[in-house]
Design brief:
The chain is an alpha/beta fold and 823 residues long. Helices cover 49% and strands 12% of the residues. It contains 30 helices and 23 strands. The protein has a seven-stranded mixed beta sheet, with helices on both faces. Strands 18-21-23-22 form a four-stranded mixed beta sheet. Helix 11 crosses helix 14 and helix 19 crosses helix 23. The N and C termini lie far apart (104 Å).
Length: 823
């Protein structure tokens, strides 16, 4: 039988053949010992059926080097309905099946392996499933009701289970056994799918099922009786080959538009940080205040702990001797640990820059994926919505300093998994996956997870009110899945959370003052880093600092969102999103809301949460960040509706309004400046002559590092964390009540030096101050005091000279007081 090309990768039989009810396609490679019995069993069963069904059996010889063709030829002489298709050389099961299926004429097509591990009698079960309106019925060894009469070798079974797990996750979720060689298809759909296939190996099964899934053709997984047959042609390296084919299949399934969207997000992220990437080791984002120093230190200390197998939840490198509870300081182990090799090779500045740049990109890509999957498939609409959700003004503000608030790629994945739970199809699996996702997010940032949970709860309540029928069907699988998620998550995070809340240097809450909520005006004003409409003076007046401009969406976007909600109000999704956005905006105003242009202050809804555990440490203004994805999804819905409108005028007006709302808030690149040089005393290791780290001595910067001046953290990372120091920039406890504060618990001498730094006034220093200083130096195990050039450094120098009783020495660009010398 000849094969003629019908299209790319497709083949058809010689013209003139007639249509039959059933085609059985068998791929064969060096199967002379098993194929004869298989053909006898199949043809005998089909002849004995006696129900008038017309059939054919097509054996595809995939370049065999034994007597496989002779076996088929002999069978053809006995039964003309057995046909032979040949391939000049061995190319794999996928190629053989493509030849055979595209050469078939059956209204139904059965593909089965040459060993007939699933008996031909099982065809009856597949037939019933196909008769129920399915387009494919695939035999399964993993579905309840299946019978395995003879197992494979345990290693092969384990590899098969692992492979199926990957296949379900990456290609065809919901199908437990894609590789069982016994599948029945609707003939025309099978020929279309196999003609479009490209894989030549064992991965063909996955590719065909994925084609059916994407085409919306229903597939049934049917339990069958199965027995392993000796003589399998699957070799150990074939498992790796299938994995490679699966990877190639996944890569080919990515649309060009999706790839371009991700590349565009990456470009946007790089442009945002362009000033820093000019020279990442010597550039600083001034609007990060001291946070860049702090976060680089976090990455450095994590890498140091990983390399030396130390406890990643605690250190005494800062805040000596009490130390720092790293778990209570958002050290982002979920990123800083994987980035350890980068930190060690390229340094913490490059590592942090990559984490923030790639984190923003991944976050945008995740929102894009969620919008395409759940909201609308128009790629332009999804791109615009995801870009707004990721690069909205509050996100850009946090991009200066807070990677935990911009590396949010897990949030869309968590939202999608919660929605899957509501569907109730695979509650156990989705619950377990959700628990693992929540666990990982805890090691990325707990406060963003709390805010996301608030947003999801607000959305769920609104949706349930609008669609009680959906809520009635969804609440049971949702709560069951959430329970499973907790059972998975809690054991994994129990120890880290116990360390965070009850371990060394843990604290109860962090007080942010009475003005941490947004002004109502901030919601409609423009942020400092908006390229077109940015207003630094207004933004600073309406926010805590440049890293906490948590609203500033601009009045044009607010007006557009209002118009979208009115125009699409009939959609339940829009109603739920509108409620979520408005509620989040109101909560972000804080416990007391000042009415603009008046002296009136009214209670805010945040007052109900402000003193509750966990919420008491939240900066309430950050709740407005929930509005970013809400606005992004609303925007995607609107653009999707506009591009589908048949009226060009409507499209033009609508898209013009979208552009007018977005252009004012397009972010400008973050400000970047030259970084202060690390003094040679630190950089060239001169400090080692003054501080005996073997005896636990510390290096004491003057004044001690604190949240207002943490440049000493940069010294420490430059010295590869080889010395400890008191003070620092972190969250720790203060007093008997262990209230959270920024920085180390103050001592008399640290307060004195800090006061001189900010005031420039040298106080009267008497014996009592000198005695107290000696006690504090002993507490810190100080080996040397180091004063770098800075504001009021002359006054600081004079103060230290009076405390120590002698002048310092100018060494390596700093003043040094060696405390080993006698005064």
């Amino acid at each position: 039988m000849s094969a003629v090309t019908r299209g790319p990768g497709a083949y058809e039989r010689t013209p003139g053949a007639h249509e039959v009810d059933l085609s059985v396609v068998i791929p064969a490679y060096n199967e002379e010992n098993r194929l004869g019995r298989t053909l006898d069993a199949i043809t005998g069963h089909l002849r004995d059926a006696g129900d008038g069904t017309t059939w054919e059996v097509i054996v595809v010889d995939d370049g065999s080097t034994d007597g496989t063709r002779d076996v088929v030829t002999a069978a053809t002489e006995a039964e003309p309905r057995v046909q032979l298709v040949t391939s000049p050389r061995n190319r794999g099961k996928g190629h053989a099946l493509r030849l055979g299926v595209c050469a078939s004429y059956g209204r139904r097509v059965l593909v089965t392996d040459a060993d007939l591990a699933a008996p031909i009698e099982e065809l009856e079960h597949l037939d019933k499933a196909l008769a129920d309106g399915r387009t494919a019925a695939i035999g399964s060894r993993a579905t309840p009701g299946a019978t395995i009469e003879r197992h494979q070798h345990p290693v092969r079974e384990a590899l098969g289970r692992a492979g199926n797990f990957l296949i379900r996750g990456l290609a065809v979720p919901g199908i437990r056994d894609t590789q069982c060689g016994f599948k029945l298809f609707d003939g025309e759909r099978a020929r279309e799918a196999f003609a479009a296939s490209r894989l030549d190996g064992f991965g063909i099964d996955i590719e065909i099922l994925q084609y059916f899934r994407r085409s919306g053709w229903p597939v049934a997984e049917v339990p069958v009786r199965w027995a392993h047959q000796s003589g399998s042609k699957i070799r150990p390296w074939d498992y790796a080959r299938v994995l490679g084919e699966l990877t190639a299949l996944k890569a080919r399934s990515v649309r060009r538009a999706d790839l371009l969207a991700v590349l565009a997000f990456l470009l946007m992220s790089v442009l945002l940080y362009a000033g820093r990437w000019i020279d990442p080791n010597h550039r600083y984002l001034p609007d990060s205040l001291q946070d860049q120093n702090q976060w680089e230190w976090f990455f450095a200390v994590t890498a140091d702990h990983v390399v030396h197998l130390r406890n990643p939840l605690f250190t005494t490198l800062q805040g000596f001797p009490d130390g720092v509870n790293l778990m209570a300081n958002t050290v982002m182990l979920g990123v800083s640990v994987p980035f350890t090799p980068i930190t060690l090779v390229l340094g913490p500045a490059v590592s942090l820059g990559l984490a923030m740049t790639l984190g923003l990109t991944a976050t945008a890509a995740a929102w894009y994926w969620l919008i395409v999957r759940r909201v609308g498939r128009h790629r332009g609409a999804a791109f615009t919505g995801a870009a707004l959700a990721t690069f909205a003004p509050p996100m850009v503000s946090h991009a200066n300093a807070h990677p935990n608030f911009i590396v949010l790629f897990m949030m869309p994945l968590i939202i999608d998994r919660a929605l899957r739970l509501c569907e109730g199809t695979r509650v156990r699996r989705d619950g377990i996956v959700l628990g693992l996702m929540a666990t990982y997010q805890i090691f990325l940032g707990e406060e963003p997870l709390l805010l996301a949970a608030m947003g999801m709860l607000l959305f769920a309540v609104a949706y349930a009110v609008a669609r009680r029928d959906v809520a009635k069907e969804s609440w049971r699988p949702l709560f069951k899945g959430l329970g499973l998620a907790l059972l998975v998550c809690l054991p994994l995070v129990a120890f880290p959370l116990a360390w965070q809340f009850f371990g060394p240097q843990s604290y109860k809450s962090v007080l942010h003052g009475d003005n941490a909520g947004n002004s109502p005006l901030a919601l409609f004003s423009f942020a400092e880093r908006s390229l077109v409409a940015g207003n630094e003076e207004t933004a600073n007046a309406l926010s805590l600092n440049p890293t906490e401009q948590n609203a500033f969406y601009g009045w044009p976007l607010a007006a557009l969102a209002f118009a979208i909600v009115i125009g699409l109000w009939e959609r339940t999704l829009v109603k739920a999103l509108a409620f979520t956005g408005v509620a989040a905006a109101l909560l972000s105003l804080g416990p007391r809301i000042p009415i603009p242009l008046t002296d009136t202050v009214v209670p805010g809804p945040w007052a109900l949460l402000s003193d509750k555990p966990l919420f008491e440490s939240v900066i309430e203004g950050r709740v407005a960040m929930i509005c970013a994805p809400v606005l992004g999804i609303l925007l995607a819905l609107a653009i999707d509706a506009l591009v589908r409108s048949p009226h060009l005028g409507t499209q033009f007006v609508g898209l013009t309004a979208v552009a007018a709302a977005l252009i004012p808030i397009v972010p400008a690149p973050l400000k970047s400046v030259e970084r202060p040089e690390v003094p040679a005393f630190i950089a060239d290791g001169t400090w080692k002559s003054y501080v005996d780290t073997g005896k636990g001595e510390t290096l004491v910067p003057v004044p001690l590092p604190d949240p207002g001046n943490a440049e000493a953290l940069h010294w420490q990372t430059t010295a590869h964390l080889q010395f400890r120091m008191p003070g620092g920039y972190f969250n720790g406890p203060y007093g008997e009540e262990r209230i959270g504060i920024y920085g180390a618990s103050p001592r008399y001498t640290s307060n004195l030096l800090r006061e001189v730094r900010y005031s420039g006034v040298v106080p009267e220093i008497g014996d009592n101050w000198r005695a107290q200083a000696r006690r504090d130096f002993a507490h810190w195990k100080a080996g040397a005091l180091v004063l770098a050039p800075q504001g009021y450094d002359a006054q600081l120098r004079e103060t230290v000279e009076k405390l120590v009783g002698r002048p310092g020495k100018w060494v390596g660009g700093v003043w040094v007081w060696d405390l080993h010398e006698e005064g």
